[in-house]
Design goal:
Layout lengths: L1 E5 L11 E6 L5 E8 L6 E7 L2 E2 L3 E5 L9 E5 L6 E5 L4 E6 L2 H8 L5 E6 L8 E10 L4 E2 L10 E4 L6 E10 L6 E2 L4 E7 L5 E10 L2 H18 L10 E7 L5 E7 L22
Parallel strand pairs: 3-16, 4-13, 11-19
Antiparallel strand pairs: 1-2, 1-15, 2-3, 4-5, 4-6, 5-12, 6-7, 7-8, 8-9, 9-10, 11-14, 14-17, 16-17, 18-19
Length: 276
């Protein structure tokens, strides 16, 4: 599968629309108009379904009228504590929201947990941002104590031995067609500078060695938290890292907790309030 972002002259007023053109190997195509960024209408995505899922992840940016093209990513439980900030300047960070949170929970005066420069463009127009990985065994029961956003994209849970990769990328319109083999765009929005944020997903095998390594990290976290886990409902952890090319990723992992009964889940009519 390939994707081609096509847009007329950016200098026209009002701003011209951006169309995402998906082309399959059999020659069929689909066109999808890309909406403008709006912090009150973020991308919400999770693997599984309500009551049996991964974490719910949120991706958003400021409105184009702000003239800012910074991108933010977080998981709902840590939204008031930590976020990934991908600044238009190329200064990309994983950080605490405020200095007092860094002191209280991180024992440090600095907000920044990780900092790296924006990577190179691939195929002349696409830049990898962050990938989120969810194994089959990490799609776990969860008691939905709060109402869920109505706009969550629910990706199908993978079968045993596989995982889902959620990939966030930045693309420039009016450039050459680029390949996204192994992943398919499911949402996106347009930034103030005309670039497009794409959210893509695909299924991939998880080797036994990788799964054992992830399980060892879960065991370390269980040992660290101790009895505190017994008081938590459906505990989870995020394992953040980077590959040999410097691309950042998060493994969204389920921790062992007390058994849960099936629950009925409600949905909100709108999105959570968001502050950039």
């Amino acid at each position: 599968m390939s994707a081609d972002n096509a847009a007329p002259n950016e200098s026209a007023a009002p701003r011209s629309p951006v169309t995402l053109r998906l082309s399959a190997q059999d020659g069929t195509t689909e066109n999808h108009e890309i909406r403008e960024a709006d912090p009150k209408k973020p991308i919400y995505v999770s693997v599984g379904r309500p009551g049996l899922r991964s974490e719910i992840w949120r991706i958003w940016a400021n409105k184009p009228s702000s003239r800012k093209s910074d991108i933010y990513i977080t998981a709902r439980p840590i939204a008031g504590f930590q976020k990934w900030s991908l600044h238009e300047s190329g200064d990309w960070r994983y950080q605490w929201i405020r200095p007092n949170l860094a002191r209280e929970y991180g024992g440090t005066e600095g907000r920044i947990l990780d900092r790296w420069p924006r990577g190179p463009e691939l195929a002349g127009s696409v830049t990898k941002a962050i990938s989120i990985y969810v194994r089959s065994e990490d799609v776990a029961p969860i008691f939905e104590e709060v109402r869920l956003p109505a706009s969550v994209t629910w990706l199908p849970a993978p079968p045993p031995g596989f995982g889902i990769g959620i990939h966030i990328a930045i693309a420039r319109p009016d450039e050459a067609e680029f390949s996204v083999d192994g992943a398919c765009p499911f949402d996106g929005f347009r930034l103030a500078n005309g670039s497009v944020v794409l959210a893509m997903a695909g299924m991939l095998p998880v080797t036994r060695e990788k799964s054992e390594w992830l399980d060892s990290k879960i065991a370390e976290e269980v040992s660290r938290r101790g009895a505190a886990l017994e008081e938590m409902t459906a505990p989870r952890m995020g394992l953040f890292g980077f590959d040999d090319d410097g691309n950042r990723f998060v493994h969204d992992l389920a921790l062992p907790g007390p058994p849960l009964e099936d629950t009925e889940v409600g949905h909100e009519g709108g999105s959570d309030p968001v502050t950039a």
